[in-house]
Amino acid sequence: MYQPHIETMGRRELEELQFKRLQQTLQTVYEKVPFYRQAFDLKGTQPSDIKSLEDISKLPFTKKSDLRENYPFGLFAVDRKEVVRIHGSSGTKGKPTVVGYTKQDILNWSEMVARAIVTAGGRPGDMFHNAYGYGLFTGGLGLHYGAEQLGMSVVPISGGNTPRQITILEDFAPRGIAGTPSYVLNIAETMESMGKDPRSNSLEYGIFGAEPWSEEMRQTLEEKLALKAMDIYGLSEVMGPGVAIECIEAQDGLHVAEDHFYVEVIDPVTEEPLPRGQLGELVFTSLTKEAFPVIRYRTGDMAFLYEEPCSCGRTHTRMSRIKGRIDDMVIIRGVNVFPSEIEAVILSHPDLTPYYQVHIERIGTLDEITVHAEVSEAFLQQAGGFNLDSDHFRRVKHEIIHELRNTLLITTKVHLCEPQTLPRSEGKAVRVVDKRHLYQSI
Ligand code: DLL
């Protein structure tokens, strides 16, 4: 059941609970999962050597490649017959990564998501439009079970078929919507193109995540749809959506479900834990999972942990918005750039639509970024048509290059495109097209 007291528990009590659960988890993985037993033995650390939460840094990390090497069920800690649900990530490189859940895992996850929805402003009895994809992806079913657990009326619409989504939004009048920020933006834009005002809707809050997004995107969504937009984080390897969520009271940082996970931030190069406030890679250890426990899972996601408790009264630690993924990071003349930082510039420019794509290439030994951005219809009319050589277009291009240089401290190329030419997403948007590996294999 939904347990509000756990969210405001004193830190000491919470940490004691975490430690007890950690010991249990370590014992289980050591006994049941040969991969962890070998990794612990190799590191010379036994579960009994972990005498405090901080001792966790003595344990080895788990990486996505470990999941691939043990594909499909090698890291499960229970008999396959006890696994009642399988999920996975789409896997851009070959096989997907596979995760499993026992009945109890599904109950815990649903309770965690129910709590997350309440944190974001949802209530029992709300009509809830769930536009996350249903399937192997954890978004659809993860939010669905949590919403049902809370006692909401869930509309399992999934992603795609946007005109139908709009009809259902109008007819069912939901209070809440969940989906990737890029897809919900696509819904708003489609409403506009149908001559409808996206602000005339029943929505009060949106639960957006599964892809990187910025404060500017929050503003855009809140203005376009007249709702409050909250950030939800999660990953299938750790559980799925609900690992962390922003509260509607502060909308400032995402509360980590610390009764279920122990969170660390490490320097991705030295692998040393970093103090609160410093940006690094998020690492999670599950504390309650039965079928697929993970120990020190390196997420590849960059964020920092807040130092201060939240004004909302919840005691669970807050993490920042995801600043980017390590794999997407570009190093240009010693400067680390996350393509997600580009979104802020594109969304603040009045002559562009909120759609963009970042192409990364390797020219010789140097990485180079080209930002593809769409001009708006209004701008096109003002400029008298699409002509990259006209003064209007040159001015816009120059302004964006200038703004990007101020923000990222590097020079990028900019390619302006006609309205409606960049891909619209129905799930996770493809913002980064990384062509660097093409050159490496030649
Ligand atoms: O995306 C789970 C999820 C579903 C989260 C619905 C939120 C809402 P995966 O498909 O395994 O799981 O992808 C996980 O997506 O490592 C991040 O890189 C990215 N991601 C997830 N949430 C956010 C977010 C789901 N709020 C990967 N901000 C993660 C930025 C996010 N990136």
TrEMBL record:
UniProt enzyme class: ligase
TM spans (from-to): none
Keyword flag Nucleotide-binding: yes
Catalyzed reactions per annotation: 2-phenylacetate + ATP + CoA = phenylacetyl-CoA + AMP + diphosphate
UniProt keyword Cytoplasm present: no
Keywords: Ligase, Nucleotide-binding
Extent of the signal sequence: none
Single GO molecular function: nucleotide binding
Pathway annotation from the record: Aromatic compound metabolism; phenylacetate degradation
EC number, as in UniProt: 6.2.1.30
Chain ranges of the AMP-dependent synthetase/ligase domain: 78-284
InterPro entries documented for this protein: Adenylate-forming_Reductase (IPR051414), AMP-bd_C_sf (IPR045851), AMP-dep_Lig_C (IPR028154), AMP-dep_synth/lig_dom (IPR000873), ANL_N_sf (IPR042099), PA_CoA_ligase (IPR011880)
BP-aspect Gene Ontology terms: phenylacetate catabolic process
Record-annotated AMP-dependent ligase C-terminal domain positions: 334-436
Family, as annotated: Belongs to the phenylacetyl-CoA ligase family.
General function of this protein: Catalyzes the activation of phenylacetic acid (PA) to phenylacetyl-CoA (PA-CoA).
Subunit structure: Monomer.
Name the UniProt record assigns to this protein: Phenylacetate-coenzyme A ligase
Species, as recorded: Alicyclobacillus ferrooxydans
